Amino acid sequence: MIVIKPFINFISDILNRIHTTKGLHVVLIVLVLTWFSLDVFFDRFKYNLDVPIQNWIDTAVYFNNLLSPVLLFATVLLLYWTWQDTKRGLDLQRSDALYTSIIATLERSSNELKKELQNCKIKKLDNEEVKSSIEFLGRHFLSERIKKHENNSLEISLKSRVQYIDIIRTSTTQINGFGSVLNQLYLMLGNEEHKNAFKVNLYSLFSIDFLIGFLIIQVRIQRLVKELDKYDLENQDKVIKLLVETISISYKDKGLGEELFDDKFIKKYLNYSV
User: Fold this and answer.
1) Which long-range contacts (CB under 8 A, 24 or more apart) does 25-29 make?
2) pLDDT tens for each residue of 159-217
3) Distances (CA, A) of 242 to 52, 138, 212, 213, 238
């Protein structure tokens, strides 16, 4: 029974393949060729049951030689399509395993970053945590962008926003490197479904204020690295694009989406003195 079971599964898989569109086409071709062969044969030799046994043997040999290549070709096609499905399934399993590993790395890196930013204080900002400062920057940007000034506490007391951003940016090296980590992990994904899920996971790991503040810092870094080579600029563009798409998850229903980060407004925000 153990020996027969794999054979039964193999036959079952072939029968399931026949039920697909391609399988039906193969069966149709085999039936047409078989019908054509029978029609030619009986048109030439006529149908007569009262013949010697040797005639039956010759007839069987004739049809065996005629139809064997056709049936063999049909079997090869069905086996090839079965192999394709198996390969596709294995590729999907490998893709899922890679995605799981990437998400685990993302969560680990994010948790390490959050701990470091919470432990890191900025003396120039009254010993404020770096994490809280980034979140404040995100809230301030959002307030300016959607014209909500009800909260009077959203003020940056330094001479300019750029100075405020640069103090946060230079307070720790980890915040700058995290963008590169995100980009490297994201580029390893080749499946659109996994890429979308990556953004959702990233969105769930941080507050929206933090992500917006982090994005503004990345834009500032982009402006500072314009003197570097094209490769660095392309990578920074990818980091910014990923963050914009991630943050936009919250604002698509509100009609803002990526418009929240209009390039002209960001440039004005970074150069506007308060």
Assistant:
1) 26/74, 26/77, 26/78, 27/74, 29/70, 29/74
2) 578 888 888 888 876 787 899 899 999 999 988 999 999 999 999 999 999 999 999 99
3) 81, 16, 12, 14, 6
DSSP 129: E
At 63, the amino acid letter reads F
* Whether 248 contacts 260, CB under 8 Å: yes
> What is the full DSSP assignment across 216-274?
HHHHHHHHHTTTS-HHHHHHHHHHHHHHHHHHTTTTTTTT-GGGGG-HHHHHHHHH-B-
What is the length of the chain? 274
Sign, CA torsion 182/131/273/266: positive
Q: What is the pLDDT of residues 13-44, one digit of tens each?
A: 555 555 555 666 666 777 777 777 777 776 66
Interacting residues of 11 by C-beta distance below 8 A, sequence separation 6+: none
- Number of helical H runs and strand E runs in the chain: 10, 2
Contact 109, 174 (CB under 8 A): no
Band of pLDDT at residue 105, cut at 50, 70 and 90: very high
Count other Cβ atoms within 10 Å, centred on residue 244. Answer: 18
Number of neighbours of residue 15 by Cβ within 10 angstroms: 11
Buried b (16+ CB within 10 A) or exposed e, 46-72: eeeeeeeeeeeeeeeeeeeebeeebee
Q: How confident is the model at residue 9 (pLDDT cuts 50, 70, 90)?
A: low
Tell me the average pLDDT of the chain. Answer: 78
